[in-house]
Amino acid sequence: MNDTRPVGAESPRPLRWTLLRTALLGGLAVAVLFGGASWLVGQQLAPRLRVALEQAADRAGLRVDDWRLVRGIRGSELQARLVAAGCDRHCSGAMLAGHVNHGPLWATGDHLTAGLAGFDGRLSFDPSPGGPVLAELPPARLAASINLLGRGEGSAVMPAFASDIRRAGEPNATGRLIGAQSRATLAFDVASMRRARWTLDVPRLARQDAVAGRLGLRGLSAHGSMGDAAATLALSQLVMDDGRGQATRVRDLATSFTELAPARYQLTLDAGAVLLPDNQTARLAARASGNRQGLTAIFKSAAGWRARGGLAGGALNRSGFYAETIAPALADARLDVEASLVGEDDEQVDARLVLRGPPDLDGPINAVDVLSALNAQARVGLTTGWLRRLAARLGPPTATERELDQRLETLAERALIQRDAPGHVTSRARLADGRLFINGRPRPEWRSVVEQLQAAAPGL
HSE of 32 in the Cβ direction (CA atoms, 13 Å)? Predict the structure, then answer.
């Protein structure tokens, strides 16, 4: 029979056109779905990324100095600058830059990755104006991803390097920084960063300076968790050379950091062998406890100190050093430190420091202002063998035994030391309400002594 159809009726389209249209519509729907999902993920990530970075930086004693995020549909470009928390201006820092991939699907190399988000970037050294320049220091490679269940992992790899250290505008190198390839990892859960755990491995790192000498370490490994603020560090060797033939070597160093109670932490340190500059071997043990402000005060102060040129650069007499760096670092600080050094033939040094900082130091302009606002107690006890060794180091190298004994007698006569047992001396100091007492005696001259040292600091 012949095929007949009503006049004006449309002819049936071939099957291939129907399939093509279905595929096009399906592809468009998938593109809209994934594009919309990626856009939504990017919208949710934008505020959370900065909060997460600021929290991580704060835990590491850093702060976010600059933040830029350019958001797209499938990804965002991130750039941030990190500096030490105690540095307010002319700060050297680290520049974080990279690409943020928005989930649920993105391309990684030659394959697709499913997850909430991913990151690929680099972390590079960013010198301050007039600060040290490390021209040959390569950036660290960063990578991170968060799966669909909200669990994430990240890594940072620092390639091996050897870089000269130069001051901006100066052609000659002042030192050299050398390091083997190092690696850090982080495993975390988006729902709770308190479950995050991290590791660090630095096989070798050394700094050689024409003036300050050499500082080098080998075999550093560390791990910890962010939730309970716990960390453990092991170091096989640490070498500190002052550049004048006096070197201290530390072997088998172990440290740990734990949270004793809410807002109270403890740092412990133990070294199995410390080789001192005079070739004496000793064991070192130390413990520091206090609030976070007290335990980080030295690091914040050191960052501001270096940013202002240190001792040779006149940091102690620089405008703003005390008000902008020292005052915030010591405000409301609570710190209790105990340490002991036991040498050969049971020669021993033990010390304790208790420090309390006021809630507000009220804009100090010099070292006297800072010390006058603090409450502190200190005690040092040592055997006469250690005391004689210290006196020999501080005095002329040709001093005789009799001259050393005379120096010790002078210290005792001035009540700067007390002989509390045969072969053992102690000294106690208390600073409160701007008044200094050493072994119970007031020392009103301390202010003028500090002022003289501050004025003479650049030439020391």
Answer: 6
φ and ψ at 432, to 5 degrees? Answer: -150, 135
What pLDDT is recorded for position 32?
47
Each residue of 348-371: pLDDT tens digit? 899 999 999 998 888 888 888 899
Measured in residues, the chain has a length of 460
Is residue 30 pLDDT above 60, yes or no? Answer: no
CA dihedral 434, 438, 442, 444 (to 10 degrees): -60
User: pLDDT value at position 300?
Assistant: 79
**pLDDT beyond 80 at 211:** no
CA distance 270 to 339: 10
User: Are the beta carbons of 349 and 340 closer than 8 angstroms?
Assistant: yes
Quick: pLDDT tens for 262-299: 888 999 999 988 887 667 788 999 999 999 889 888 88
Q: What is the mean pLDDT of the chain?
A: 80
Residue identified by tokens 């190399």 is: 109
Domain layout of the chain by residue ranges:
29-125, 291-460
Please report the pLDDT score of residue 427 as a whole number: 92
CA angle (294, 299, 192) in 5-degree steps = 75
For the chain, the first-to-last Cα distance in angstroms comes to 115
Residue 411 neighbours by CB distance under 10 Å: 16
Tokens of 200: 């660090």
- According to DSSP, residue 346 is labeled G
Residue 143's DSSP bridge partners are 120, 155
Q: Which residue has the tokens 């120096």?
A: 407
User: Is residue 122 within 8 Å of 99, Cβ to Cβ?
Assistant: no
> Chain centroid to CA 407: how far?
41
Residue in 66, 58, 67 with CA at minimum distance from that of residue 86: 58
**Contact 217/204 with Cβ under 8 angstroms?**
yes
CA-to-CA distance for 93 and 87, rounded, in angstroms? Answer: 10
Nearest partner of 394 among 378, 410, 381, judged by Cα = 410
Q: What are phi and psi of 33, to 5 degrees?
A: -65, -50
The reported pTM is 0.73
Between vectors from CA 319 to CA 315 and to CA 324, what angle results, nearest 5°? 90
Does the pLDDT value for residue 423 go beyond 60? yes
